[in-house]
Amino acid sequence: MGKLRRKKRKVGARRYLGNRKSLPAKAKDVSTRGKKASATGKGAAKDVEKYIARAPEPARARLKEMREAIRSVVPAEAVEIISYRIPAFKLKRVLVWYAAFSEHCSLFPTASVIEEFRDELAGLTVSKGTVQFPMSKALPTALIRKMVKARVAQCEKAQRS
Where are the alpha helices (DSSP H) in 18-140? Predict the structure, then answer.
């Protein structure tokens, strides 16, 4: 029975390694296969402060402005986290994500909130779950606050159900 187990492992290893007959002497780290190193070589930010600090200056000011607008309407118990490599506010579940890119800042309030504010978002680039605010225009903080309030209400309603 012991031989049978070894044989299964060897077949599995062969399947995983392709045509090679045995495992390499030094085990390969497959967790980074196909991934490129970041431009700075530092990897992803571990907290929101580091994420904002790494952003180039025009985006950094926008991120701080967006962060303050969001923080002003989320409950005091909400915490800031890094989720999917971008900042987010969480209260039992993630309320909203936000991020900076070269030409815009984005808010990720979920598809249902975007659908609710579809008319007010005219003129902005919108996808199913993302609203993009171009760097060339002023940040509509009042609209951001309204969308975040709607998301918080949605989460509270779901929690009560």
Answer: 48-54, 57-71, 111-116
- Tokens representing 91 are 């209260």
Is 57 in contact with 64 (CB distance < 8 Å)? no
Residues facing 99 on adjacent strands? 106
Question: What mean pLDDT comes out for the span 2-20?
Answer: 50
Which sign, positive or negative, has the C-alpha torsion 108, 110, 111, 114? negative
How is residue 98 written in tokens?
């936000």
Both tokens of residue 152?
A: 């918080």
Residues 48/87, Cβ–Cβ less than 8 Å: yes
Do residues 66 and 107 make contact, with C-beta atoms less than 8 angstroms apart?
Answer: yes
The Cα–Cα gap between 111 and 114 comes to 5
The answer to whether the pTM exceeds 0.90 is no
Model pLDDT for residues 122-161, shown as the tens digit of each residue: 999 999 999 999 999 999 999 999 999 999 999 999 888 7
103, 134 Cβ separation under 8 angstroms: yes
- Radius of gyration of the CA atoms of the chain, in A: 22
